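Design review, sub-item: ligand-bound model
Attendees: FS, YL, KQ
YL presented the inputs for the flavin mononucleotide complex:
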Amino acid sequence: MTDQHWVNLDELEALAMKKLPKMVWGYYSSGSESEATLRDNRAAFLRYNIMPRLMVDVSKVDTTLTLFGEKLDFPLLIAPMAYHKLANPEGEVATARAAAACRIPMIQSTMATVRKEEVAQAAKGAPFLMLQLYVTKNRDFCRNLIMGAQKAGYKAIAVTVDAPRLGHREADERDSFHLPEGMAPVELDSLVSAEEHARQATGDEPKSAVARVFYNQMDSALTWDFVAWVRAFSSMRILVKGILSPFDALRAVEVGVDGIIVSNHGGRQLDFAPATLDCVANIKRAIGDTVPLLMDGGVRRGTDILKALALGADAVCVGRPILHGLAVNGQQGVQDVIKMMRRDFEQAMRLSGCPSLKSITRDKLLKQGEPLSRL
Ligand SMILES: Cc1cc2nc3c(=O)[nH]c(=O)nc-3n(C[C@H](O)[C@H](O)[C@H](O)COP(=O)(O)O)c2cc1C
Ligand SMILES: CC(C)CC(=O)C(=O)O
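KQ shared the predicted structure:
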């Protein structure tokens, strides 16, 4: 297996592990505490089988969809992740170019290592950009960030609601995770000095610099009235990211969000939170067709996308494999990841007898333990 030749995302992951410094690999790959949720995100996909229906004309399969008024080539978005420059010197610029080339949206993290205006430039041609928002205690800063994104042409914000504190990632503690000198989440410039991100902990402080900065800046008092607060000054669409309970999903719809991202943060926040795939159907039942439903966590195969859609998701987001592609081969590596997922999703649609996204329905799936007679 060479850098150029990997045939699935597990092989790509192994290449990325070899290439990245231990501290970066630890940060990218880990989940919180015993990593039960991290593992379960993947295991949940294995709990479902797909019952193919045959003799359906699948000579053409239509993977396209319209989301927030824009056309996507297939139902995949790039999940927000911090610090792309840890994987490649071009950082989020390379990722954004790949999103544009593959005509899928990118969600940029608040903790990006490239400014949002530069990312917007690089993403020209992508269906749209979203800015993921970590809500800072300093609300003036937060308002400026949102208005800056609106001005730069971002279509939506995705407010991350599963992180009143950063989850306890033991690899980061062990490695005293910190950013290399000269690298910083640039949007936070006016709040946190570059030295602070690179500083090693002293005394009783959290050993991980990311945990320390997060603790000092982010607002653990965040509640649902935040949505109305944003509405009052911004016309951007508002999504919430990190929903697992159908009650929270209903509450989100009640306060007027434009979309929900079912997520447990890739198993990095509450350990023993349920696998996201297991939450999708319940949430879909609760909110119906009110707003688009996205999900992320452990999506690695075309059949995974098909399963998520069959359970009620409109689209999925993919996280770590994007960073692996970026680490192994920059923009081209990210494009290769997206292309492979698209090819494999089309294959899953063909072999299961689903020529359109609409035809991917719950009755194509059989959960472990369910009798065949359910179909
Ligand atoms: C290295 C890394 C950094 C992340 N940074 C953010 C972030 O800044 N904001 C956020 O809302 N989620 C963040 N996430 C969570 C992802 O958006 C997403 O929920 C998760 O990675 C999806 O799972 P997957 O990696 O199994 O595809 C991060 C995840 C990873 C692995
Ligand atoms: C910089 C971090 C707060 C980004 C994050 O959400 C994560 O590492 O999971």
